[in-house]
Write a structure and sequence with these properties.
Layout lengths: L11 H47 L8 H25 L4 H8 L1 H10 L3 H17 L9 H25 L4 H23 L7 H26 L4 H7 L2 H13 L6 H30 L1
Helix pairs in contact: 1-2, 1-7, 1-8, 1-10, 2-6, 2-7, 3-6, 3-10, 4-6, 4-9, 5-11, 6-8, 7-8, 10-11
């Protein structure tokens, strides 16, 4: 009897790190699309292409999904779409580093709510200190509506983390992401079409939009769904503190944005918090396995 080949999958920690790098690379692409397509148009292209690619590759059997699975995946898709749309609305008004930093309030709240050991509090405090250092708090030229959009994106991100784990429990990761992306596209496309900026699409912008979909949605959300199957929610949330770091490094390499000394200190604090959270999680899993 032949044994079916096993699907390739990454361990949870490398999966999360690769997802973070992919998202920030996509953010650099998105900044190039904003002048032509705007936030709504860019979000529509990203989510629309992502949904199309995933439906073609995964081919989920929508008619065979059970009611409980729909009840899980629809809220997940709405949270996914809201998180992306609100973040792009913020990114169109405030700097990338500040948008990512404020958005992280959501995952940080999830980490605080789920902490059970005093060591978890230490990692959250370190991550919070790093975030405070990396954010430009001078207040000069900041758009208040952009700040509100970023905080709202953080709330949607927190909801996305919780709903991702619930959805992963009732659906295979690839199916959950593909159906969830379809729901997100149905939510966002009316805003993109209503803006009228999608009329400016050319083959060049369509190519960039497809790359944006792969790097910002298809790859990272699939990896995150995979990781959440084997990683505690609070650990995943603290690891997401690497997002501001990845944003700063992406801006430095791709957009020629320089880091200040305080920002480099923030990088160190956030990396330390992430490493500590990962170590704590590994110790907990080892202890459970030995019982």
């Amino acid at each position: 009897m032949s044994v079916p080949p096993r699907r390739f999958s990454l361990p949870p920690l490398p999966a999360v790190l690769l997802a973070i790098v992919s998202v920030q690379g996509g953010a650099a692409i998105a900044k190039g699309l904003f002048p032509v397509l705007g936030a709504a148009g860019t979000a529509s292209i990203r989510i629309g292409f992502s949904a199309l690619l995933l439906l073609i590759v995964v081919r989920p059997r929508l008619g065979q999904l059970q009611r409980a699975q729909w009840h899980a995946v629809v809220p997940y898709g709405l949270a996914l779409g809201s998180m992306n749309f609100l973040f792009y609305c913020a990114l169109a008004r405030i700097p990338l580093g500040l948008a990512v930093t404020l958005e992280f309030v959501g995952p940080l709240a999830v980490a605080l709510a789920g902490s059970r050991r005093w060591t978890d509090i230490i990692w959250v405090v370190l991550a919070g200190a790093g975030i405070a250092l990396i954010a430009p708090w001078s207040g000069h030229g900041l758009d208040m509506l952009g700040l509100v959009f970023a905080l709202a994106a953080g709330a949607a991100w927190a909801l996305y983390i919780v709903l991702s784990q619930r959805t992963a429990a009732v659906l295979p990761g690839s199916v959950a992401v593909s159906v969830g992306m379809l729901v997100a596209a149905l939510l966002i496309l009316p805003f993109g079409l209503g803006s009228g900026q999608l009329l400016h699409l050319t083959p060049h912008w369509l190519l960039l939009g497809s790359l944006l979909a792969v790097f910002s949605s298809v790859l990272p959300f699939t990896l995150e769904m995979q990781a959440l199957k084997a990683m505690p929610t609070r650990t995943f949330s603290i690891l997401m503190s690497l997002e501001p770091v990845a944003a700063a490094i992406s801006g430095w390499i791709l957009l020629d944005e320089q880091l200040t000394h305080s920002q480099w200190l923030a990088v160190g604090l956030i990396v330390l918090a992430s490493a500590g959270a990962t170590l704590t999680s590994a110790q907990e899993q080892t202890a459970v396995g030995n019982e």
